Amino acid sequence: MKWQQIPLGTLQTNCYIVENSQRSCLIFDPGSEGKKLIHLLNQRKLTPCAIFLTHAHFDHIGAVNEVRDTYKIPVYIHKKEEKWLSDPALNGSQLFMFQDSIRVSPADHIIKNEGPMEINDFTFSVFHTPGHSPGSVSYYFEKERFVISGDALFQGSIGRTDLPGGNQSQLIKSIHDKLLALPEETYVLSGHGPVTAIGDEMDSNPFLNGF
């Protein structure tokens, strides 16, 4: 199984494609540029199985409808942000995008609990990691040694907490309890910027000093 990072849109939000040996794939956070993403998937002859969202901010959901409609696949999101998809005031597009407010059709599946998840041949765990937003989740692929953290943890930084529902102390707790508890060699696939590793962030992230 392997993954690919695809920065999309003005904010270069990282979309991730996780594929298996049968060339099936999962799509995480298709934030923008749906046609570009679809072209890439078709060019590589990948068959998408589902879309998983780390959270429902506008820069992570902008291409959801286009990609879902193209491949007829389900969308997963945490229950605390299911209403954000269709509400520009909640997903931030009303504030940041003005006339281009984003409204996404309801998700097909609502994530209500943490724990293992299996879809087709993909097996991973879901962690609720709130703080950047109330329904932020991270997806941990233990065997493959990587976690898709959304905007919770970045290389040398953490997610902003000044948007609706943000809470810095809650975010620090989420990172400490859920992410820093993973093996140090675990790769962190963040929502923006380069890939990092749990051990590197434990050693050098200034926001996590003291842990």
TrEMBL record:
It is an enzyme of class 3 (hydrolase). Keywords: Hydrolase, Metal-binding, Zinc. The keyword Hydrolase applies. It holds the Pfam family Lactamase_B. Gene3D superfamilies: Ribonuclease Z/Hydroxyacylglutathione hydrolase-like (3.60.15.10). Residues 12-192 form the Metallo-beta-lactamase domain. Its cofactor is Zn(2+). Its EC number is 3.-.-.-. PANTHER family: HYDROXYACYLGLUTATHIONE HYDROLASE GLOC. This is Metallo-hydrolase. It comes from Neobacillus rhizosphaerae. The lineage of its organism: Bacteria, Bacillati, Bacillota, Bacilli, Bacillales.
